[in-house]
Amino acid sequence: MIIRTEQYVHEAALGIRNPVLQISLAGLQERLGKGDLAAYQSLPEGPDLRYVAHDMRMSNICHLDIFLETLTDRIQEQGGHVFFASDAKAAVQYCIDVAARNDVRRVVKGKSMVSEEIGLNPALEAEGIEVTETDLGEYIVQLANGHPSHIIAPAIHKTREDVGRLFSEKLGIPFTSDPPPLTRAARNALREKFLNADMGISGCNLACAQTGHITTLSNEGNIRMASTLPRIHIAIMGMERVAATLDEHQVLLRLLSRGAAAQKMAGYVSYIGGPRQPGHMDGPDAFHLVILDNGRSRILADPEFREMLCCIRCVWRLNVCPVHIDIPRMLLALRSKLADGDPVWNVKRKSRLEKASFVLWSWLVTHPGLYDMVLGLSASAQNHWLSSKKENRMISKLPGPLSGWTRSRDLRPLAKKRFVQTYCPGKPDESESPE
Amino acid sequence: MNPNHRNEFIQRVRAALGHPAHICRKAPELFRHPPGLHAAIADQALNRNRSERHILLDRFRQEAIPLNLNVIGVEGIDDAASIIVRLASQKEPEWERTKHVVTWAHPLIDKLDLSERLSAMNIPVHAAGMNDTDRDPFIQLAQHACIGVTSADYAIAESGTLVLKTRPGQPRCVSLTPSTHIAVITQNDLIDSFREMVAILQSDPAEVAEGLTSCMTFISGPSKTADIEACMVHGAHGPREVCVLVLLMPDQLTKGQSSDAV
């Protein structure tokens, strides 16, 4: 999926004006954000288990070489194939090769963000392979030729009427906007796809090194279908998604279920360790695990960003992060690397002028007398840049090197009276220098 | 020599972590547990007295309610069988005009004698074979079945979860493709938590010898989706209904308990 900046601005404007999307997103946030926090409270170990999980994940990441090798050895012992892909291209090519060797024509997919990352669907389709997304939300988005708008709610931007019109056009059913019959129509259409598929592709939520299993989570059961019925199953995992032991794994799994959907356990969880064994009457004949780097080892090498790899993709953020990643710290590190430059990431300092301005500013704020003078001058000069609209007296365009600040937003004008003057009228001025 | 690119990949990871790229690291201590910990937890889980098991069943029932998971206590195998017969007679076939039932080959399920009991209603029952090697014929049967009957290795009270390993005669599709999934378990299969489950899996000699198998599945209620305007609908791809029949231990039976609403 490629999103260009200019397209983004346009899409964002459309999204902000879309009432259905706004209401749905607010509902999702309200329901699941708060639900997650409540779910953490109900943990038998208490909500602090998230801090324990953070330590577990850091240990997983700091011994990633050991855990990936153990996982690989176990899966190979159990008859599975493991492929290590350094980048998206290698991962995609491996999937294409497996498909070609087995004369695969039809693929069913479980929801997998890593397959979006590597652009798998268009690559398989270019080989003449039919690829069907089987998560209901993803299926709706695929039928509409669109892109998922949210990891756990990919079709949240579609109204029930949108889905009704789409299904009546593409699946040939009479129009209805009632979710149960719409779901039934998708169930029927996709059941045929599952039964006729030559290959199933899924992601991997979290692997367990000790036992040599990957786990997949879903509520619909589509990933169970895709990993049980076709003759071949390929699972693609980001290399960071591995837990050491079964004990750690069950802790992370419970936190992931709570974090993703405020559930005590996801509706379906499958521990998959290889192809079907002698006497097994279903399950794939061949199981392939693709372990993907695609830039992750560069993040791993950076001690400031390494923590990012603790993420288990529950789709929420700081307040409800199930493994309590310190996101503000990383955003600051990111900002400083982008501003100051970083040879490891091949980033050069954007602007010496900006750096100089910040040095000047940090000096200025420690000298209150001067600071007040500068603010006073700016406040009287700002009228020149204030927008003329009465109801919206904002600064829409700053001159010269400051223009970057107003490129994508308006700034509030400086207040006529300073905070101290407004709230501490008894102390008109305390502008003596501290020195 | 290295067609899966393992070595270069792992070397890159080691280098990123600041270790010499070419020296294989081992750390067996990372996989060790405090000695006896699992055994102690498993011992507690597997040796509950009757009143403790009764509390567990209550908890399992409570957790099952929001999941839309139907939990029914039954007095004995005949009781369980008659509930299955009643369900089979009530359910409408979803995929075909006629109804059929698929089951695991499992000591508890064999005792239900469903083939005999359902033959009067002309509902064929197909049990998975123990020694079959061809996967397709049974999948063909299971894909359009009205009811699938399995047992479960464990039922976890903290989340209303069934745990099913995959074995010969116990295929995964019986709990997946039929419109209704019925699991018959005994009250001894109930445990409290996932913590107990992993302790048992790592300390019980039979479990350790078997491992997790090629596919161990957790099932917490029927298949569901909320992808259309966040409206909850049951029966997305998997079973639309799941029913757990728990064979109660004799002294816990109270009158009427076996006739909970179906």
Describe the protein:
The complex is a heterodimer of chains A (435) and B (262). With 435 residues, chain A is α/β, with parallel strands linked by helices. Chain A has helices spanning 5-17, 19-41, 49-62, 64-77, 88-101, 113-118, 120-126, 136-143, 160-170, 179-196, 222-228, 246-261, 296-301, 327-340, 352-364, 368-381, 419-423; strands at 81-85, 106-109, 130-133, 199-202, 206-208, 213-218, 232-238, 242-243, 268-272, 286-292. In chain A, α2 crosses α12 (246-261), α3 packs across α12 and α9 (160-170) crosses α10 (179-196). The termini of chain A are far apart. In chain A, 41% of the residues are buried. Residues 430-435 of chain A have low confidence and may be disordered. Chain B is α/β, with parallel strands linked by helices and 262 residues long. In chain B, the strands form three sheets. In chain B, strands 1-12-7-4-2-3 form a six-stranded parallel beta sheet. In chain B, strands 8-5-6-9 form a four-stranded mixed beta sheet. Chain B has a two-stranded antiparallel ribbon with strand order 10-11. In chain B, a hairpin with a 7-residue loop joins β10 (224-225) and β11 (233-234). In chain B, α2 crosses α8. The longest helix of chain B has 18 residues, at 50-67. Chain B is globular. The relative contact order of chain B is 0.17. At the A-B interface, α2, α4, β1, α8 and α10 of A face α1, α7, α8, β9 and β10 of B. β9 (268-272) of chain A pairs antiparallel with β9 (215-219) of chain B.
User: Tally the helices of chain A: what do you get?
Assistant: 17
Strand percentage of chain A: 5-15%
Backbone CA Rg of chain A: 27 Å
Please state how the strands of the largest beta sheet of chain B are arranged side by side. Answer: 1-12-7-4-2-3
How is the CATH topology of chain B named? Answer: Rossmann fold
In CATH, the architecture of chain B is 3-Layer(aba) Sandwich
Question: Could you list some keywords that capture this structure?
Answer:
heterodimer; A: 435 residues; alpha/beta; Rossmann fold; 2 domains; six-stranded parallel sheet; four-stranded mixed sheet; 10 strands; disordered C terminus; B: 262 residues; 12 strands
